[in-house]
């Protein structure tokens, strides 16, 4: 009985290897779970299956009948078959891609859906993604253009900046008052975000706006993740952030970011 099952298993494996996987795509094979009926028969065939959750090839014992195509004779065969599926993003979330160097899914902001708001609304960044797993794509808030443009997210950051420059400002403003009535003089929200090199290992020259020094500073970007405070040139950074510091305050004695 065992010999017969062994012959059957070898024949089925040979057919699977020979077929171009036209009927069942590789990425679908690598997603298949190990079924409950793989132990129905009494043979003992050490095998491997691809675990789509851990992105690893796990060992299991095949009983000789039933089962599905997610079954490989060796770990190497499993890894060779499903590595391509991982590179093709078949086992990563929709907003992430497979990184062969780190052998993990990494956030790919370029895959994020394009957000839009109604013509009478302004788009504001809501929650910035901080890593994977988790929110890869930043979430946005649509606000009516006629409503107050105060965003509570700014409160803590603005409070810290005001505290830092308290000794040099002649006129003091309450943080809530500043947030509600002086928001047009604040920097765009992305300019208040911290430097974020990201999780990947590339080395791209980028600039970020340092709200404490009011300067566009060079840093090395890894190529993925990060946040919106990321500019390809110093000029782009300055055009977006530096001109919003309201230089007229220097002459009026109302210095906001000392």
From TrEMBL:
Identify the residues that the record assigns to the BPTI/Kunitz inhibitor domain, covering every copy: 30-82, 191-241
Q: Where is the signal peptide?
A: 1-25
Give the SUPFAM superfamilies listed for this entry.
BPTI-like
User: Per its UniProt record, what Pfam families does this chain match?
Assistant: Kunitz_BPTI (PF00014)
Membrane as a keyword of this entry, yes or no, is no
> Mind telling me which InterPro entries this protein's record contains?
Kunitz_BPTI, Kunitz_BPTI_sf, Prtase_inh_Kunz-CS, TFPI/VKTCI-like
Say if the entry is tagged with keyword Signal: yes
Q: Which domain of life is it from?
A: Eukaryota
The alphabetized UniProt keywords are: Disulfide bond, Protease inhibitor, Serine protease inhibitor, Signal
For this protein, what is any one GO molecular function term?
A: serine-type endopeptidase inhibitor activity
Q: What is this protein called?
A: BPTI/Kunitz inhibitor domain-containing protein
What species was this sequence derived from? Lygus hesperus (Western plant bug)
Q: Output the lineage of the source organism.
A: Eukaryota, Metazoa, Ecdysozoa, Arthropoda, Hexapoda
């Amino acid at each position: 009985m065992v010999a017969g099952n062994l012959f059957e298993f070898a024949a089925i494996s040979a057919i699977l290897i020979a077929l171009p996987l036209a009927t069942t795509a590789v990425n679908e094979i690598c997603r298949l779970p190990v079924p409950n009926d793989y132990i129905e028969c009494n043979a003992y065939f050490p095998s491997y299956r691809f675990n789509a959750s851990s992105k690893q090839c796990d060992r299991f014992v095949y009983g000789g009948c039933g089962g599905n195509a997610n079954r490989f004779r060796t770990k190497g065969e499993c890894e060779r078959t499903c590595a391509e599926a991982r590179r093709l993003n078949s086992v990563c979330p929709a907003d992430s891609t497979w990184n062969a160097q780190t052998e993990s899914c990494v956030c790919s902001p370029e895959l994020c859906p394009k957000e839009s708001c109604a013509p009478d609304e302004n788009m504001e960044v809501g929650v910035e993604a901080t890593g994977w797993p988790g929110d890869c794509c930043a979430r946005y808030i649509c606000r009516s253009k006629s409503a107050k443009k105060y965003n509570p997210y700014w409160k803590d950051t603005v409070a810290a900046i005001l505290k830092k420059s308290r000794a040099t400002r002649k006129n003091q403003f309450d943080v809530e008052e500043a947030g509600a009535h002086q928001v047009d003089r604040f920097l765009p929200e992305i300019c208040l975000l911290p430097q974020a090199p990201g999780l990947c290992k590339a080395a791209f020259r980028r600039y970020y706006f340092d709200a404490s020094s009011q300067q566009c500073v060079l840093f090395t970007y890894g190529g993925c993740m990060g946040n919106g405070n990321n500019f390809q040139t110093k000029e782009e950074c300055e055009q977006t952030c530096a001109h919003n510091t309201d230089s007229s305050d220097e002459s009026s004695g109302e210095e906001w970011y000392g």
